[in-house]
Amino acid sequence: MGRAIERTPTGVMGLDEIIEGGLIRGDVILVAGHPGTGKTTLGLQFIYYGARELGEPGVYISVTEPVQRIRRNALRFGWDLAALEDEGLVKLVDLPLMDVPYLVALETGQVQGINDIVYKIVRPLREVKAKRVVVDTISALLSLCKGEGDARLLLLRLYRELMMSKATSLLLAEIPLGTHEVRFTAQEFVVDGVIILESVLEGNRLIRRLYIPKMRGTNHSLDCYNLYITEEGIAISPMPAIRGI
Amino acid sequence: MSVRELVNDVTSLATPSIVLIRIPDEIQVLDAIALMLKRLVEERGHKALLILGNRSAGNFMEGLRTYGFVIERAVRQKKLLFIDCLTRSVGGPRVEGALFVSSPSDLSEVSLLMERGFRILEAKPNETWLMIDGLATFIIFNGMRRVLQFLIYTTNRLRTRRYYGVILYYGSELEKQLENTIRQYVDRIYEV
After folding, report:
1. Which residues on B lie below 8 Å from A237 (Cβ)?
2. Best residue of B103, B105, B115 to probe chain A, by most A CBs closer than 10 Å
3. What is the DSSP letter of B40?
4. pLDDT tens-digit profile of B127-165?
5. Residue A15 maps to which CATH number?
6. Cβ atoms within 10 Å of B124's Cβ, excluding its own
7. Is A183 a residue whose pLDDT tops 80?
8. A203 at the B interface (CB within 8 A)?
9. Does residue B142 lie in a domain region?
10. Mean pLDDT in runs of 10 for chain B (192 residues)?
11. Chain B touched by A89 (CB under 8 Å)
12. Do the domain assignments include residue A24?
């Protein structure tokens, strides 16, 4: 009998059950969603669960939101990230790429664009020997690129570095409200899996939903599931949703 | 069949089964559930999760207390839990021993809380019961097709885990088509 594929449970109730127990260890997964659908919460839950329940070091890279605010928001779910940081199991990284000085440096060629961005992400991974990584958001990183060519190059470099790190990685991406497309569709082709979070109006209620269009090496469910942000974090309804009803 | 005979029969089922109970009025529903819970939870130490669509958990608990059922003890011992589908949507007070669904129109959330409820109860095969009361409410908010999908999903989930299932409904609340369809998914049908 061959060796079983090693899986990384996400810790999200209902999700692991529809992806054969978890993400394939070392894979890079794109989590793309509308605003307010729980991307950041899902990312934090992934890091917190790994560190707290499995002792797996995790790095959370925040491009747009200060890490103090991330720590504070996580407490709402009872996730004490600061305590895990003290234990060396979690590293929250502020990546101030959207700051004006950095943007100026980028524009004037004082920093080497793509190389510099990738280096800033990969360095903390090595420091803690991360087994889990979240980049929040890849959309913000790509917005620094001058064109689609640069964006593809950044994605490919990042994918390669994350893959070589052997950490299981989530790249969070924004889908603008009212649309169903991630800005650079190339992301979907580069990564190993794609999880989509969307918000839709059903009658007079806004419903959050999750579906998985792609997950290499995994016999995943093709159904669409309602997603809830509960007091314990993100949870996926075990019963598939019916679209349009 | 009388309520007492029904309770004797249902609580004597040897293997985990799904039963559909047609009952003439709300008072007898409370009668049947209270007697079943006394026997299953208090006497045998089984676990029960009740999904309530017709009334709030607080109101249902008050009714149960009139039968001498000590709810607080059963909740504390992780033997009894309610899923209340009304309180949050009408803004009523929350009580201990219940999980609250945002709206009876969200059967996906009911299924999610069902999983959470079984986890809280530390549910085990052959000694866990799911009781559903209030199909009429669910039909009004969701339509027949969605309620059927929920029931089919739920009954299959119960079978794979070897839990018992009890679906109660009033004589007049089910449309014939729904009743005929549900009948295909249950092991026994009782009429009081």
Report:
1. 108-109, 111-112
2. B115
3. I
4. 999 999 988 889 888 988 889 889 999 999 999 999 999
5. 3.40.50.300
6. 13
7. no
8. yes
9. yes
10. 87 90 83 92 94 92 90 94 92 89 92 95 96 90 89 93 92 70 88 84
11. no
12. yes
- Assigned domain for A163 exists: yes
Residue A243 lies in a domain: no
Within-domain flag for A120: yes
In a domain, B2, yes or no: no
Contact check, Cβ <8 Å, B111/A241: no
The C-alpha atoms of residue A155 and residue A133 are separated, in whole angstroms, by 15
* Continuous segment of H or E residues that includes residue B27: helix B26-37
Specify the CATH number for the domain of residue B104. Answer: 3.40.50.300
3-state class of A230 per DSSP?
Answer: strand
- Pairwise CA distance, residues B36 & B42, whole Å: 10
Task: Chain B: give the shortest CA distance to residue A242, in Å.
Answer: 8
With an 8 Å Cβ cutoff, is B179 touching chain A?
no
Is B137 inside any structural domain? yes
Triad A42, A45, A51: Cα angle to 5°: 145
Residues in B touching A223 (Cβ below 8 Å): none
Number of domains in chain B: 1
Domain coverage including residue A100: 8-204+214-238
For residue A157, give both structure tokens: 């470099």
Domains: count for chain A: 1
Asked whether residue B6 is domain-assigned, the answer is no
The shortest CB-CB distance from A238 to any of B103, B105, B111 is to B111
Burial of B27 (0-12, 13-18, 19+ CB in 10 A): exposed
Q: Is the Cβ of A238 closer than 8 Å to some Cβ of chain B?
A: yes
Q: What is the token pair recorded at B72?
A: 């607080």
The answer to whether B100 and B88 are in contact (CB under 8 A) is yes
CA distance B98 to chain A (A): 15
Structural domain boundaries enclosing B146: 17-169+180-191
Does the CB of B80 have a partner CB in chain A at under 8 Å?
A: no
Nearest to A237 among B108, B145, B146 (CB): B108
Determine whether the interchain pair B115/A238 forms a contact, defined as Cβ–Cβ distance below 8 Å.
Answer: yes
ipTM score: 0.74
Is B111 an interface residue toward A (CB < 8 Å)? yes
